[in-house]
Specification:
Helix content: 55-70%
Order of helices and strands: EEEHHHHHEHHH
Structural class: mainly alpha
Radius of gyration: 19 Å
Low-confidence stretches: none
Number of helices: 8
Length: 261
Amino acid sequence: MIFNHPSIDPVIFSVGMLEIRWYSLAYVLSFILGAYLIKIYNTKLNLISNKLIDDFFIWSVIGVIIGGRVGYVLFYQINNFLLNPIYILYIWKGGMSFHGGLLGMILSIFIFSHIHKANFLYLADLVAIVAPIGLFFGRIANFINKELIGRVTDFPLAVTYPKLDNLPRHPSQLYESFFEGLLLFFILILFFYLKYSKKTIGMLSSLFLFFYSIFRFGIEFLREPDSHIGLIFNLLTMGQLLCIPLFFISLIILIKKNAKQ
């Protein structure tokens, strides 16, 4: 059964020149809900104060937004950047990269942990366990915005975009919201409540990177490649290429952590 895209307006409502968009709402909900849950999960080991968690909130926002924008330009719009370096500041043109946001978040955690003498891996674990929430909301917003669409398919549960080309396509955004969002969150929560302890600090971060890279790499085969980049080496998308180092880094960390058990 093929479904038509519901054609939901990307703008929830507007007041004058101010627009509230689904994508913006996804970010706001993710950060607020994430901060709330981090405080709850922190009670298990209680290695950081709630005040520090509150202080880190703005660091996380800045890290994700700046990292996401810089990553998008460098990974997906490098030609525009080389021709006009100021292009990186053109935030109104849109464009956010998960991998860039991830690097920005890691840098924020590292600097914040160093300044406040907090455990870097522990704070990274707390962030990792709530990160799938942001991925879930973000991919739903991508679906609403009719962006990052799937490849053409004869799969029974395809979706068409009447205002685009009306061809049946994989709802790849919804696949990602399930695997990178809901399923990944379930995996991390299961590990957290069953095995997380002072001895396993760092495992949650590694598991997040490990499973995210696998899920993203696989689903990218069902997602339309970026039109201005296409397939790299006629085989992989930029998203898949960026997932490869994540996979091996997480695998090395997991092996080393298990060896110490």
